[in-house]
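Reviewer 2 asked us to include a model.

Predict the structure of this chain.
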Amino acid sequence: MKRIVPPISIAGSELGEARHICAFFADDEEEYRVLLPFIRDGLACGQRAVHVVNSEQREEHLQRLNAEGIDTTSYHEIGQLDVWNDTEIYLRDGCFDQNRMLATFEELASGGKAAGAFPLSRIICRMDWASGARSHIEDVIEFESRVNDLWRMHDDAVICTYRLSKLTGDAAMDILQTHPLVMIGSLLHQNPFFTPPEEFLLEYRRRHPGRMDRD
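Predicted model (structure tokens):
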């Protein structure tokens, strides 16, 4: 539920009411350089950290956090840090289900059952898995738009990270339209291309007539 909360800073900017961010990074080094301070500061403030990473990079991710001075074992034991593989969150049973994901994020959001006693969450989702199959990326684009209705009701900061080199131009533009904020490298911007879900989904499904209405 929306309430008065302390500001959240990232990449030299302060987040306002909109906190759903699309982040385009060139590589892992750039991503960690920008996001590690954001992760560390959130944990120090008593906020929850939820990270979804590539399955093969989970151990490396934990090592990077530890190298930053973050005691991942202690934070995990008290429920303040959760690190999930992408297959555990997005591809359970081998498929991506938009409605299941909306329910999952509802639980992870501040005030949800999975959030516990922490005031809000800083959620970072690595989206590489969606780039490999057309059906995945089309589902994800719809989901990224639909989930805005959920994040409007919560104070959590949510960052979806992508590699532009793995996306087609059309997919990158559609993803851009589904996020009110965009980060390119180390710079955060209000996104002039953002289109509210009620407008974007109508237009997107018109361009993809074979898509089912998932609402």
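The chain has a mean pLDDT of 91. The two ends are 22 Å apart (CA to CA). We have added this to the supplementary material.
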